[in-house]
Amino acid sequence: MMSNREANTDVILIGAGIMSATLGSLLKELVPDWNVKVFEKLGSAGEESSNVWNNAGTGHAALCELNYTHEHPDGSIDITKAIKVNEQFQVSKQFWSYLVNSHMIRNPQEFILSLPHMSFVQGKKNVEFLRKRYEKMGANPLFKDMEFSDDPEQLKEWIPLMMENRKVTEPIAATKIDAGTDVNFGDLTRKLFDHLESNNLEVNYKRSVEDITRTSDGLWEVKVFDHENGKLEYHTAKFVFIGGGGGSLHLLQKTGIPESKNIGGFPVSGQFMVCKNPEVIEQHHAKVYGKAKVGAPPMSVPHLDTRLIDNKTSLLFGPFAGFSPKFLKTGSLSDLLTSVKKDNLFTMMAAGVKNVSLTKYLIEQVIQSKEQRMEELREFIPNAKSEDWELVTAGQRVQVIKDTKAGKGTLQFGTEVVTGADGTVAALLGASPGASTAVSVMLEVLERCFPQHIKEWEPKIKEMIPSYGISLSENPDLIREIHASTDRALKLEGEKYAESM
Question: Distance between CA atoms of 182 and 278, rounded to whole angstroms?
Fold first, then answer.
């Protein structure tokens, strides 16, 4: 097999998903002279975790996701995580607005649309929780426009499809906030890469990264297989970012850095029921999140979502968990097995012992019949008919397992950045809220890996993201300003989802 050796570059980005697209776009603005290369296994950008069918498309702003708020034993509600996630999404919207206003990306309505975000619960205890959550969140300027109702007549106006023929035998309630969004992260990713490629950033498709090793002079050598030519290539870089979705764990392990030790991954695949009946689809215009079942992972919160996919309105319900040992949809059946190393064996074993209820939940989900899935859907849509819905397999996610203060083998829910001590390599692991918080997460990578540049970069970062370094929840005037400017730039101002069809 022939091989080529390339001269070293400044930055190598592995994976052409939303994370690499975001980091590449930030670097292009901050240091336009740096040489940046991207390597992607598939034939185009945004086809794995960022793909519109593989991603829930919720602009995660903690407006409806009940797992971002926590009820303490004393009954008080903790909204710390909700505030953080919302502020992170506001950072993403600011950066996207900067790119639109600078004509670097166009037609924002192709990747983001206004859509109400709602939470829906049943039962006295859950209604009481939702009411307390609404009161706590409504007092914060980030969530001041949230509405609450436990009146079935009001809910018929908000969610007619869900209320039709519903037998209300116990208290029910919902919250609604019109500032929610539906985001096509696949389309956004492609827009970002189109812009980068037109500005001489080198993107190489059909290239698998096989290995990452440290050279004697402190650089990173990246071994790449070119699927089109059947050749091996060797590229060296000062900094490597591993943004390969579920594939990131294996590549992080290959770096051999101490920070890659004692970390494992557990793959969970998502499945959605997709509605085929246009008459049903037309009756619902919102993303409605419920509460996860006992034993279910937080990423399995049931939700009924209006989506815009391939220029037409769709209606999805899920997710239902599936299991495959693959770490990527296009991965290998040996992914899980080969991720187990000497240093993380006990971490993985401890996770297995700790998460018996999760294992039981996954087994139950995998063996569900279509009718059992329809019964879960009927908790949201009482009138749902089996012939109107079909099952679609969505993305593959890898939950991080690591040793924490909470103990060995703790399953992590969320997005994790792992960086080497010298800041020359970084990897992104984990799942939701992921894509929605990409800009904040990539700024964290820059702060950790390039601390010597941050002061000189700060004026430009603030030009792109006016709230950088500021707590939005403590600055109501700035929130109003940012909402107005980003809504205008992203064409969300006064626009309702149904009107954009």
Answer: 19
What phi-psi label fits residue 435: left (phi over 0), alpha (psi between -120 and 50 degrees) or beta?
alpha
Residue 299 confidence (pLDDT): 60
Q: Shortest CA distance to 61 belongs to which of 180, 193, 230? A: 180
Q: Are 348 and 258 in contact (CB under 8 A)?
A: no
Question: What pLDDT sits at residue 99?
Answer: 98
Would you call 216 exposed, middle or buried from its count of C-beta atoms within 10 A (0-12, 13-18, 19+)?
Answer: exposed
Rounded Cα gap, residues 19 and 362, in angstroms: 28
Residue with tokens 């969530």: 143
In the chain the first and final C-alpha atoms are separated, in Å, by 52
> Residue 132 contacts by C-beta under 8 Å, 6 or more apart in sequence?
71, 75, 77
Average pLDDT per block of 10 residues along the chain, 501 residues long: 67 96 97 96 90 85 93 93 96 98 96 96 95 97 96 97 94 97 96 95 95 93 94 95 89 91 84 94 96 66 91 90 80 85 83 72 72 91 96 82 81 82 92 85 96 97 97 94 96 55 37
- The set of residues, in sequence order, having a beta carbon less than 8 Å from that of 269 and lying 6+ positions away, is 321, 322, 323, 324, 326, 329, 393, 394, 395, 396, 397
Check: CB of residue 425 under 8 Å from CB of residue 220. yes
Token reading at 374: 């329809």
CA distance 174 to 288: 9
- ∠ CA 299-250-257, nearest 5°, is 110
Provide long-range contacts, Cβ within 8 A and 24+ apart, for 195-198.
195/25, 195/99, 195/104, 195/105, 196/21, 196/24, 196/25, 196/28, 196/38
- Note whether 284 and 159 are within 8 A (CB): yes
Distances (CA, A) of 115 to 38, 84, 181, 281, 285: 33, 21, 5, 14, 7
Distance of CA 387 to the CA centre of its chain: 31
Taking each helix axis from N to C terminus, what angle separates 80-101 and 18-30, rounded to the nearest 10 degrees? Answer: 60
Strands ordered across the beta sheet of 287-289: 147-149, 172-177, 117-122, 287-289, 303-309, 312-322, 263-275, 389-404, 407-412
DSSP string for residues in 368-429: --HHHHHHHHHTT-TT--GGGEEEEEEEEEEEEEEEETTEEEEEE-SEEEEE-TTSSEEEEE
How far apart are the C-alpha atoms of 20 and 438, rounded to whole Å?
Answer: 9
